[in-house]
Amino acid sequence: MNGSRIAAVGHYQPAKVLTNEDLAGLVDTSDEWIRSRVGIRTRHIAGPDEPVDELAGHAAAKALAAAGLAPADIDLVLVATSTAVDRSPNTAARVAARLGIPQAATMDLNVVCAGFTHALATADHAVRAGGSSRALVIGADKMSEVTDWSDRSTCVLVGDGAGAAVVEAADEPAIGPVLWGSVPEMGNAVRIEGTPPRFAQEGQSVYRWATTQLPPIARRACERAGLEPADLAGVVLHQANLRIIEPLAEKIGAVNAVVARDVTESGNTSAASIPMAFSKLVEQGALSTGDPVLLFGFGGNLSYAGQVVRCP
């Protein structure tokens, strides 16, 4: 085998939907104020009895079913999350236990909003190196648990959910080379810190960085896959804010691509946003098998990671 591919994807969101009108009853805001600034209409919120590993487990089970696989077929579980409550056992181990996956290596990756694309690259590398034959890669976050619901600048943004992908060995590479990095001097621009931990960000700084510095980086990710942006059939960016997604996608130059806009109904779900939005595009039939799709995460730590994948 010379590479790896995504065999299937799946996603999960809690049943409770929080609308902009609901938020207007909590803080000084309105539907018009939220939609004009971030483009979000609704978001899904997990209950106190729905931990991150449960969200992750539901999404992973759907991806496994879509791939026609059993839990025993998985030998590596990677979970990208920044909202796990406990340090040990990690979320990946708890997902493996929920699904009955025996003897798999289990690891969490905390790269916040760019977590899934980092985890996907890690799985690709493990498969290529022979350390894994089939991996389960999950992005899951419960942002509602680290949000100050009296702060209208952040509480209007967040949602909860999970997305997952099954990565397996392939004769031809269908996950392109990753382009990843960070801007450490701006690491404090997006934070989840304190006791209890709370999400905070410097919104204008993040907006300027994302819309001016990231387009050439994303184009380089396409170059590494041997493609021009115009060759892309889909673009799935971290679903941070519609006012970031739309100009960033335009500046990348993916003129023929379907651009994921799941943020409008799901909010910012951090590491879950890319796999969840990707899974929805696949489920809706907006992408076809083999289509080249750019996945590009950015955010906390001012980290970024992107790669072009072939649609399962």
From TrEMBL:
Biological function: Catalyzes the condensation reaction of fatty acid synthesis by the addition to an acyl acceptor of two carbons from malonyl-ACP. Catalyzes the first condensation reaction which initiates fatty acid synthesis and may therefore play a role in governing the total rate of fatty acid production. Possesses both acetoacetyl-ACP synthase and acetyl transacylase activities. Its substrate specificity determines the biosynthesis of branched-chain and/or straight-chain of fatty acids.
PANTHER family: 3-OXOACYL-[ACYL-CARRIER-PROTEIN] SYNTHASE (PTHR43091), BETA-KETOACYL-[ACYL-CARRIER-PROTEIN] SYNTHASE III, CHLOROPLASTIC (PTHR43091:SF1)
Domain Beta-ketoacyl-[acyl-carrier-protein] synthase III C-terminal: 222-310
Subunit structure: Homodimer.
Taxon lineage: Bacteria, Bacillati, Actinomycetota, Actinomycetes, Kitasatosporales
Name of this chain's protein: Beta-ketoacyl-[acyl-carrier-protein] synthase III
InterPro entries, alphabetized: ACP_syn_III_C (IPR013747), ACP_syn_III_N (IPR013751), FabH (IPR004655), Thiolase-like (IPR016039)
Enzyme Commission (EC) number: 2.3.1.180
HAMAP family listed in its UniProt record: FabH (MF_01815)
Family: Belongs to the thiolase-like superfamily. FabH family.
